[in-house]
Amino acid sequence: MNTGILLISCPDQKGITATVTNFVFSHNGNILHADQHIDEQSNTFFMRLEWSLEGFSLSKEAIKEKFGTLAKKFQMQWDVYLTNDRPKTAVFVSKYLHCLYDLLYRYKSGQLPCVISLIISNHPDAAALAKEHKIKFIEMAILKENKIEQEKKQLEILKAEGIELVILARYHQILTEQFIRTYPNKIINIHHSFLPAFAGKNPYAQAFQKGVKIIGATSHYVTADLDQGPIIEQDTVRVSHRESIEQLKRKGEDLERIVLNRAVFWHLERKILVYNNKTVVFD
Amino acid sequence: MNTGILLISCPDQKGITATVTNFVFSHNGNILHADQHIDEQSNTFFMRLEWSLEGFSLSKEAIKEKFGTLAKKFQMQWDVYLTNDRPKTAVFVSKYLHCLYDLLYRYKSGQLPCVISLIISNHPDAAALAKEHKIKFIEMAILKENKIEQEKKQLEILKAEGIELVILARYHQILTEQFIRTYPNKIINIHHSFLPAFAGKNPYAQAFQKGVKIIGATSHYVTADLDQGPIIEQDTVRVSHRESIEQLKRKGEDLERIVLNRAVFWHLERKILVYNNKTVVFD
Amino acid sequence: MNTGILLISCPDQKGITATVTNFVFSHNGNILHADQHIDEQSNTFFMRLEWSLEGFSLSKEAIKEKFGTLAKKFQMQWDVYLTNDRPKTAVFVSKYLHCLYDLLYRYKSGQLPCVISLIISNHPDAAALAKEHKIKFIEMAILKENKIEQEKKQLEILKAEGIELVILARYHQILTEQFIRTYPNKIINIHHSFLPAFAGKNPYAQAFQKGVKIIGATSHYVTADLDQGPIIEQDTVRVSHRESIEQLKRKGEDLERIVLNRAVFWHLERKILVYNNKTVVFD
Amino acid sequence: MNTGILLISCPDQKGITATVTNFVFSHNGNILHADQHIDEQSNTFFMRLEWSLEGFSLSKEAIKEKFGTLAKKFQMQWDVYLTNDRPKTAVFVSKYLHCLYDLLYRYKSGQLPCVISLIISNHPDAAALAKEHKIKFIEMAILKENKIEQEKKQLEILKAEGIELVILARYHQILTEQFIRTYPNKIINIHHSFLPAFAGKNPYAQAFQKGVKIIGATSHYVTADLDQGPIIEQDTVRVSHRESIEQLKRKGEDLERIVLNRAVFWHLERKILVYNNKTVVFD
User: Does residue C186 have a pLDDT over 90?
Assistant: First the structure.
């Protein structure tokens, strides 16, 4: 079933919910989900509205035009999506392949509503996996000397392929600000710690050193601030003094796969709104 | 801040959300939360709407009348609540006092939006605790011979006190169907297992015997079917072969307190709708 | 590093720990792990002892002989394992491949200390996956008419291959008692519910119907009693009224993979002792 | 049942386990629990041994003498405890009383094997609770000007009362290094965040600001480094964008109580060994 989804944020005032739901109803849409949230600190209103497109009288273009007028009145930031438009997606990966492996399994099983059309890596390890899934694989070694040039090429490729979502599935390179600014809230990273604890390198070694009794994983949108972007999802698992760094890594891999997958899935279901370097994730 | 809350369920059709939100908006209400859910199996629509009563032009009686007309058109089952109306609550307890102790602490701290005006027990153990909190305590021993008679008295007392919510905080007596029918979806029980596993007596001993690696607690509305009412909340905790029945009990106590408290709190916040012997709990 | 592992259970009495640790020490073994547990109900003593074989003066055969004499005195049930002996393992699977897919990923990554030499299925779906990993795949359709005959063949194949561990990775056939008795505590199953809740067919549909707020998965040794064998590991995850049966299945898949993997891993690390239809799992 | 407990750490070498278990066995002790751990990074051996004192032939003094000789040979750091010796305990608290309230409930129920003989606070709020439980309450306001002097008095009081364990149950004062050095690994604090994230002041506000999806609590031994002492126990709970700072606080209170209680309980059961600013917690 094809559905329409509106994601809205604006200063709170009376009548927003009524106006928006009326808009959909007056064009013969059946509302399936209506979620809203008000951030009281900043007096901001957030809404996600999903309705059946069966019998709905407006095309996507017409929605943009008509709703746009209404949106201006409320100073809304907003987007509209149709479920059947599956975003083209690229996965960046380095040497650890467990997250990629997991994403591809879910993708092949029809669980991820996107089109994974590209895998980019600074190492050759993922080539066989990409081939097996018939996905274009591009190896681009990154050195200090060629980093900026290589990123430029990456951006050109992404543009040529029409990529709308970039997943960093354990990609061990820090993207430059310019790259990040090209895909605002469209680059999802998995960090192998419970952020803000253990940002940066070797989080499992840091966790072992500190003697924590629980480890975590965090998926977030990438911003120019390393490991500081808006958190989408986190999860944790208990560990004990018996576990070596190597064992923490293995246990953590299970978390990373699950947490990254949830974040990607919610992004694709258009359940996430970003504000104030935080996320609203409607469930 | 005083707010109004509408809880609604009805057969799904186009226009419900728009109609309901318009109703509130047209009487000058600012919607704070609008949650809805559609059960696709039964094609049932559920909604919880909360709005600020500041500047709202209708009294509770007027809401009942005006919204009633609208509700009929959609065949709604519905209720309206005002946050400032704090329901009178009775707690039933036997010999284990940890849940009562916890409820009273939260109550005293201002965390439970109700008025606990009565504690009833088939044992004397809770008398001191009740006294300390200046809550009326009634001890009523229950024997096979006097059970029906005692329950009749209990119902009279509840009626006289205007009780609207009954919490069974480890009350080890099975209520009769008649009692239960007097308070439909208004009796909350805590069962010390992860239902439907280990219903009935001695769930910790059952869990130990079975060798489960996780134990749980379940809070549910009481129905005539023992431990089979609509589940409101559950939680679990890991256990190991090292733990005796006694240790399971202690660990379980922490779960029981938290799970019961959440269920009671959500009930008081009017976040729960019941259908099909299940619950919708809006968050 | 090669290590020796002793798994012991016997009636409790003074001096067992001292005697066993002395045995290892007196033959120049450095003890790495010594775990013990006493079940007070049945007065049974359990022990797992692991020591470095570097410099240890006895061969496996000699351990069996010498320790056997000592073990008789204490009426021990016991086994000895060497870490370098990797048990030959067969995986049984039907149409859902997520658990198999996961096991093979971990196997390929060197995380599972066994040799997976055989995949048997009553459906053709896993053939490609098996081929990719260069593991022998045998498809054996199971019908009412040929079940006993097919199982006989399976047992012959397992024997011929020297299989020591059978993993049921979502194998949707009930094994006969005869099959099960051939591999006591050597068949590991994953059941997609929090046992003992929702044993038997369609546990996710049962969970949905019941309206539980948490779902689970259970890995256990297979006994003649369907879904009633000794539980090795369980885990749970929260669900809400919003989730359809289909969504429960997807969420549950993550649990199944993790729980089955843990059970298999602990079995291979020789951390599990079975008694009284329960398990001791040393960590 | 009275038991003896040995806590040992020393450089790893062959024969420690055999020697220690023999020591107990040769004096007619029945070993109930024997846990050991080897930290491979530092090649350190850790052991906790618990045995029944029924029929055991040595007094505590004799154990100290005889075992001391043996311990020297292995360069052990070690302690011996008898279960029946219940350590005298002081609780420090400020204005939030939920942790104190919880500790006292468990204490009164016989769940904490200690003697809580003193409550010290820089505020008067806990006075009634202390009185109710007939525990000596001392209010000592702490100002910049009198801090060192007041701490001196506190130390004198603790000494006079024979206090062996200090619990900081949300005590909002930073102890001086001198105080801390007087009770090494004998002061247990509860910090209301998942350390090392959000150390210092207002961790819930920090967590809200950061937009984390999970909050936590951490119990640790106090060292001169604020919130950096060896972690004993941690736990976490999910939160969402819907929850205000106030709601995080309430949810966190449940964690704090449970986490602090576990840490205190394990300390009293003598299950904790400290090394390298980390803990080994035997289960």
Answer: yes
The answer to whether C163 and C90 are in contact (CB under 8 A) is yes
Confidence class of residue C247 from pLDDT cuts 50, 70 and 90? Answer: very high
Task: Give Cα D218 to chain centroid, integer Å.
Answer: 12
- Tell me the pLDDT of chain D averaged across its residues: 96
pLDDT at D41 > cutoff 90:
no
For residue B224, is pLDDT > 90?
yes
N-term to C-term CA, chain C: 19
Q: Is the peptide bond before A87 cis (omega within 30 degrees of 0)?
A: no
Preceding amide of A196 cis, omega within 30: yes
Q: Residue C41 pLDDT more than 90?
A: no
Structure ipTM: 0.94
CA A214, CA D171: separation in Å to the nearest integer? Answer: 24
**Surface of B (24-43) touching A: CB under 8 A:** 24-26, 28-36, 38
Cα A17–Cα A19–Cα A25 angle in degrees, nearest 5: 100
**DSSP string spanning chain C?**
--EEEEEEEEE--TTHHHHHHHHHHHTT-EEEEEEEEEETTTTEEEEEEEEE-TT----HHHHHHHHHHHHHHTT-EEEEEETT-PPEEEEEE-S--HHHHHHHHHHHTT-S-SEEEEEEESSSTTHHHHHHTT-EEEE----TTTHHHHHHHHHHHHHHHT--EEEESS--SPPPHHHHHHSTT-EEEEESS-TTTT-SS-HHHHHHHHT-SEEEEEEEE--SSTT-SPEEEEEEEE--TT--HHHHHHHHHHHHHHHHHHHHHHHHTT-EEEETTEEEE--
The residue annotated as part of the active site, out of C227, C235, C254, C283, is C227
pLDDT number for residue A41: 86
pLDDT, residue D83, reads 96
Q: Which residues contact D16 (CB under 8 A, 6 or more apart)?
A: C31, D8, D10, D45, D47, D74
User: In the predicted model, is pLDDT for residue B115 greater than 90?
Assistant: yes
Cα A163 to Cα A150: distance, rounded to the nearest angstrom: 17
* Threshold 0.90, pTM exceeds: yes
Show which of residues 213-242 on chain A sit within 8 Å of chain D, judged by CB atoms.
213-214, 216, 230-236, 240-242
Q: What average pLDDT is seen over chain A?
A: 96
Q: What is the mean pLDDT of residues A186-215?
A: 97
> To probe the interface with D, which of C8, C16, C21 has the most D CB atoms within 10 Å?
C21
Q: Closest Cα to residue B16, out of A140, A31, D57?
A: A31
- The band of B153, judged by pLDDT with boundaries at 50, 70 and 90, is very high
State mean pLDDT over D128-138: 96
**What pLDDT, on the 0 to 100 scale, is given for residue D27?**
97
| Whether D14 and C22 lie within 8 Å, measured CB to CB | no
Distances (CA, A) of B4 to A228, B59, B196, B272, D56: 39, 10, 35, 15, 70
Cβ-based neighbour number of residue A272 at 10 Å: 21
Per the structure block, which two tokens stand in for C59?
């061969």
pLDDT at C283: 86
Whether residue D173 has pLDDT greater than 90: yes
Q: Which residue in the set D197, D240, D278 is minimally distant from A196, CB to CB?
A: D197
User: What would the two tokens of residue B205 be?
Assistant: 């001993």
pLDDT band at D248 (very low <50, low <70, confident <90, very high): very high
Report d(CA B45, CA B42) in Å as an integer.
9
CA distance to partner chain D, nearest, from residue B69 (Å)? 33
